[in-house]
Amino acid sequence: MSDILLKVEVMAGAKIGEASKQICDLAKKLGINVDFDFNGLSIIVRPDSIAKDVHDKYLQYCDRK
What is the domain range of residue 24? Predict the structure, then answer.
């Protein structure tokens, strides 16, 4: 596990599915955790995270609000 956490910013208007895919790819490529905010929710993605899972968990969170 890396001691580095990279904070990235998602552009306004981005869709959670595409953002999840790009950030999971980045985490995997760099081998570090990546943190991003999406509509006020902080999400941390690990190098072994799966974009569909990140997307689905975000939608589940939104459904509970």
Answer: 5-64
